[in-house]
């Protein structure tokens, strides 16, 4: 099973956390996002019981075209 939550503190900055509960796992995940205009930078880390221990992830997203507000 997986459970998690994300909360945008302000329009530019969000945080998230989650848990992956499997028979061999039990990983905790946490991260943050920064969004400005068409660029978004995401950082996440995973703390697991596996051999890798800490794993870090970084992604960069660029949006092209027009943005439609709902």
Helicity level: under 10%
Distance between the termini: 31 Å
Give a short account of the largest sheet: 5 strands, antiparallel
Return Rg in Å. 15 Å
Poorly predicted runs of 5 or more residues = none
| Average residue pLDDT | 85
Shape: elongated
Number of strands: 5
Beta fraction of the residues?
over 45%
* Sheet with the most strands: spatial strand order: 1-2-3-4-5
Compute the number of helices.
Answer: 0
Question: Which structural class should the secondary elements be placed in?
Answer: mainly beta
Series of H and E elements: EEEEE
Task: Explain this structure.
- The chain is an all-beta fold.
- It has strands spanning 2-10, 13-20, 27-36, 39-47, 54-62.
- The chain has a 5-stranded antiparallel beta sheet, with no helix packed on it.
- A hairpin with a 6-residue loop joins strand 2 and strand 3 (27-36).
- The chain is elongated, with a radius of gyration of 15 Å.
């Amino acid at each position: 099973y997986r459970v998690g939550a994300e909360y945008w503190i302000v329009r530019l900055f969000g945080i998230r956390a989650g848990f992956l509960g499997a028979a061999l796992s039990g990983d905790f995940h946490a991260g943050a996002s920064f969004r400005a205009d068409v660029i978004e930078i995401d950082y996440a880390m995973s703390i697991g019981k596996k051999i890798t221990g800490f794993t870090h992830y970084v992604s960069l997203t660029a949006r092209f075209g027009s943005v439609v507000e709902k």
